[in-house]
Amino acid sequence: MKATVADIARSCGLSTATVDRVL
């Protein structure tokens, strides 16, 4: 799941760190 979220974030142009913070 985390890998998918990170992949989506990368596609959107966001940083994994930001996604991790949101999660």
- Number of helices in the DSSP assignment: 2
Q: Which regions have little confidence, pLDDT < 50, spanning 5+ residues? A: none
Reported for the largest beta sheet, the result is: none
DSSP E strands, number: 0
Return Rg in Å: 7 Å
Shape: flat
Spell the H/E element sequence: HH
Residue-averaged pLDDT, rounded? 68
| Share of helical residues | over 70%
**Termini, distance in Å?**
12 Å
Q: Decide which structural class fits the backbone.
A: mainly alpha
Structural account:
The protein is built from 2 helices and no strands. It is an all-alpha fold and 23 residues long. It has helices spanning 2-12, 16-22.
Question: What descriptive keywords fit this protein?
Answer:
23 residues, mainly alpha, 2 helices
Which SSEs are present, and which pair or pack?
Blueprint: H1 2-12, H2 16-22
Overview in brief:
With 23 residues, the protein is mainly alpha-helical. The protein contains two helices and no strands.
